[in-house]
Amino acid sequence: MNTPASNDDDLRCAEYALGVLDAQERAALELDASRDLALQNRLDAWQQRLAPLSEDTRPIAPPERVWARIRSDLGFAAAQPSAARQRRFWDSLRVWRWLTVGTSVAALVLLGAVVTLTQQVPRAPTTSTASHGYLVSTIARTDGSVQWSATIDLQRARLVVTPTTHAAIRADRATELWLVPPHAKPIALGVFPSDRPATLTLSTETIAHFSEQAVLAVSEEPPGGSPTGAPTGPVLATGNMHAI
Amino acid sequence: MTDTTSGSAEDPDAYFQDDVEAQRRERLNRMLQSAATGDERAFAELYRATSARVFGVIVRMIQDRGEAEDILQEVYVTAWRRADSFDPARGSAVTWLLTVGRNRTIDRLRQHRDELFTEYDATEVADESPTPAVMVQSSEERRRLEDCLDLLEPQQKTAIREAFFTGATYNELAQRLAVPLGTMKSWIRRSLMQLKACLAR
Fold first, then answer.
1. How many other CB atoms sit within 10 Å of the CB of residue B106?
2. Mean pLDDT lowest for which of A9-18, A44-53, B16-25, B146-155?
3. B45 with A125: CB under 8 angstroms?
4. pLDDT tens string A89-127
5. Is the pLDDT of residue B116 over 70?
6. Domains and CATH numbers, chain B
7. Count of CB atoms within 10 A of residue A27's CB?
C-alpha cells in the first residue's frame, strides 16, 4: 500500500506531529484528516510515536487560578467540587473511625488532624508539591477497587496505611509499600501488614520525595520485604496522592 | 506475572516502574472516560494528576507563563467537551491531553510567530538528550524511542528534538541551526522515516 501518494500523506502527518508545518499546511492537513479516516489514523499514529519525548520535560504545577477558570468556563456548579471533596473526606473518616480500633496513638493524632482539616474551606485541586501538611492516597487495584488508603503526615514524617477491604495475600508473602516519584526509582517505605492499620516512620530524605506527582505502590514480596532494596514482586495496587 | 516480552524484564526496577506506570495510565484513562459521562469529580482528579505535565510542555514551547495558562485552560475545556472522542485503544489519556496541548501551543506560536521569533535565544533552549541514568527510569516507550533516535546522525537528532520541544517551523529551524532550508527539510524528513522504520521493528 506504499504508493507515492500515501508516502506523501504519511510524511505530512509526521511533520504535523513533530510541529514543523506552517499555519496553512497545518490547517490543510487538519481539514483533510477530518474528512479521511485513514489519514486521521496516520496522524494519530505519528502523534503516538513522538509523544514519549514529552517525558523529557519537567512538570510545572500551574497556578490554582487556571482550574478556577476552567471550572467557570465549563459552568461547573461551585458547590459540586466541594461536595465531592467532602465525600472523599467522609470516605477516609469512615476508615479512620475503624482505625481507632487499632488504638495506635499516632493514628489517633492523625485522626484529629483529618477531622480538623475537613472543617476548613475545601480548595480547588492543586498540583503543587506539598512540603508540609498531609497527603492522602487511595491505593487501588487495576480494576479500580480500593484496597488500602494511606495518609502521610509530612511534618511528623509518618505514614498510616489502612486496608479498606480484605486483601487476599498468600500467607508466605508480604506486602511492601513504595513511593514512586515521577521518572525516578521506587523508594522503599517498608513492609506492612496487609490486613490491619499500620504506621510507617519516614526518613527526612524520603519525605522530600513526596509530592502530588508521585505515586504510592504496593508490591508482593518475600517475608521481610524485598531482599534487593528494589521491588521484586508484582505490583498489587497503586494510588495517586492529594494534598489535604 | 511472567511477562518476559517486556524489554526491561531483566531489570526489576524498570519492570516495576513499567507496571506502576501501566496501572496509573489505566486509571487516568478511566478518569477521562468518566469525564465523558459528565463526572465532574473524575475530571477534577484527572486535572490534578495530569495538568503539571501538560503545563510543563506548554511552558517549554511558548516560554510565556501567561499565555501558557491560557492554553492550558483551553486544553482542559476542550478535553471536557470532547472527552467522548477519547478512545483508550488509540492511546492513553495523558498522550491525548499532551497532544491537544502541543497542537494548541503550535497554533498559538504560528499566530504570532514574528514577535516570538525575534525574542528567541537559540543557545538557551537547545538542550541535551537525557543522560543514560535518567533514561533507565523512563517509560518503556520513551526508552525505545531513544534507541531509535540514537541511530540518527547527531545533528539530525538535535534537529528533531529542537523541532519537537520548540514547535519551530522548517524555516525557523534552518535559521536557528544555521543550515540551508533544503538541508533542514531533508534531515527532518529522512529522520522521521528512519524513526518510523526503527519503531516498527
1. 23
2. B16-25
3. yes
4. 444 444 443 433 333 444 444 444 444 444 443 444 444
5. no
6. 10-119 (1.10.1740.10), 129-201 (1.10.10.10)
7. 13
Average pLDDT over residues A198-218: 89
User: Nearest-CA distance from A182 to chain B in Å?
Assistant: 9
For the stretch A173-192, pLDDT in tens is 899 999 988 777 889 999 99
pLDDT tens-digit map of B139-161 = 788 889 999 999 999 999 999 99
Q: What is the pLDDT of residue A126?
A: 43
Question: Which residues 36-95 of B have a C-beta within 8 angstroms of A?
Answer: 40-41, 44-45, 47-49, 51-53, 55-57, 59-60, 68-69, 72-73, 76-77, 80-81, 90-91, 95
pLDDT exceeds 60 at position B8: no
CB burial of residue B178 (10 Å; 0-12, 13-18, 19+)? exposed
* Residues near A12 by beta carbon (within 8 Å), at least 6 away in sequence: A21, A25, A29
Q: Which of A205, A214, A222, A228 has the alpha carbon at shortest distance from A139?
A: A214
Q: Break chain A down into helix, strand, coil percent, rounded to 5.
A: 40, 20, 35
Centre a 10 Å sphere on the Cβ of residue B129 and count the other Cβ atoms it contains.
Answer: 15
For chain A, list the domains and their CATH numbers: 4-56 (no CATH), 79-243 (2.60.40)
Contacts of A48 (CB under 8 A, 6+ apart): B90, B91, B95
Q: What is the ipTM of this complex?
A: 0.86
CA–CA dist A198, A10 (Å, integer): 55
Q: At what angle do helices B93-111 and B40-62 cross, to 10 degrees?
A: 40
Q: How many CB pairs under 8 A join A and B?
A: 198
A77: number of CA atoms within 13 Å, CB side?
Answer: 7
- Specify the residue for cell string 477491604: A165
Mutate to test the interface with B, among A13, A26, A54 (most CBs of B within 10 A): A54
Give the burial class of A168: count Cβ atoms within 10 A of its Cβ; 0-12 exposed, 13-18 middle, 19 or more buried: exposed
pTM attached to this predicted model: 0.66
